[in-house]
Amino acid sequence: MNLQESILQNKKPFLIAGPCSVENPDQIMDVVRTFGESKRIQMIRGGIWKPRTRPDSFEGVGKIGLPWLVEAGKQAKLPVCTEVANKNHVESALNAGVDVLWIGARTTVNPFAVQEIADVLKGTSVPVMIKNPINPDLELWIGAFERLDKAGISDLTAIHRGFSVYNHPKYRNVPNWEIPIAFRERLSNIPMICDPSHISGRRDLLLEVAQKGLDLNFDGLMIETHPNPDAAWSDAAQQVTPKDLYSILDKLVQRSPSPGKDAAKHLDEIRQRIADLDDRVFDLLSSRMKMSEKAGELKREHNITIFQQEHWAKMKNKRLNLSEGYDLSTFFIQQMMDAIHQESIRHQTKVMNPKIDNSSDE
Ligand code: PEP
Ligand code: MN
């Protein structure tokens, strides 16, 4: 199959569903039972080898499960995909008739492992999906695509599954949406699938994350589905039954990246007003930095340090306390104030030490 074409030609988001792990023949058959006739699922996923954080967790049934997965695909008349992390996995999966492979987040981080997979795939035309690395490193993700591309594997798709973070109150893996967006700026011809299951880590957030992915114009979704999620051998908290998956799909609103004629005209007007406001914001920022330079001159004349902790804390807290009134998030105000402050320091340094080139200081 050509996965890129199937994804891009599918009018609706391309849906990949199936269990985190294949557990036994009945379980995988049970979960896909309605997939084919539902016409809503385009590919079945099933983990055979599971890279687990802790050693005594279930690490997948191993290659004994491959024929179960392939048979489930035949019954549902859908292609099947599984995760591979080394040469042996690739060989076993292809021998068993798996249609599509994916490289997991814990493998994308390791260029040796990605290269090993690229080498063994040389000469085949197997579609491969590459999940983002667990750390928020765009170059590492792109590097994995380059390794496969250099090996002649051109049917490539990206999966965004979020980034590992310590103790986050909401997400299992923070989405950092700006990273898949930056990925698409760099590799615009690669389809992008969103994996709400691994981003959220909990089933009550699946709809919200999936909708966000669609709102950002992702091409598809991968959602973990299990006949009895609470009893799943891996990732129990984030899996849903096929019935619950369909109800999530019913609630998703599909949006189009190209507005119709009327909407386009209205949108242009709004965008023009936004651009005018941005002009004012930047004019004000520029005047503000000129004022910082005046402060810098005064500090130079009187030999005062540029930075005074107490004064800065006061300025920043004042804005943070106004967050509700401005209707701006404290996170945004924090970032904005830090950025303004850094730029202000750069301007003041310029007048205090004209010989230092700090034009590219961040
Ligand atoms: C999975 O898809 O079950 C999996 C292990 O995902 P990730 O590589 O995103 O952790
Ligand atoms: Mn999983």
Question: How would you sum up this structure, described in words?
Answer:
- With 362 residues, this protein is an alpha/beta fold.
- The chain folds into two domains: 3-251, Alpha-Beta Barrel (TIM Barrel); 261-361, Up-down Bundle (Chorismate Mutase Domain, subunit A), CATH 1.20.59.10.
- Helix content is 51%, strand content 10%.
- It is built from 16 helices and ten strands.
- It has helices at residues 3-9, 25-32, 35-38, 66-76, 87-96, 105-108, 111-121, 138-150, 178-186, 196-200, 206-215, 242-251, 261-301, 309-321, 323-326, 330-352; strands spanning 14-18, 43-45, 80-84, 100-103, 128-131, 156-160, 163-164, 173-174, 192-194, 220-224.
- The strands form two sheets. The chain has an eight-stranded parallel beta barrel with strand order 1-2-3-4-5-6-9-10, surrounded by six helices. A two-stranded antiparallel sheet has the order 7-8.
- Strand 3 (80-84), helix 5 and strand 4 (100-103) form a beta-alpha-beta unit.
- Helix 14 runs antiparallel to helix 16.
- The longest helix is centred in the C-terminal third of the chain and has 41 residues, at 261-301.
- It is elongated, with a radius of gyration of 25 Å.
- The two termini are 47 Å apart.
- The mean pLDDT is 96.
- The structure holds phosphoenolpyruvate (PEP) and manganese (II) ion.
- Manganese (II) ion binds at residues 20, 224, 234-235.
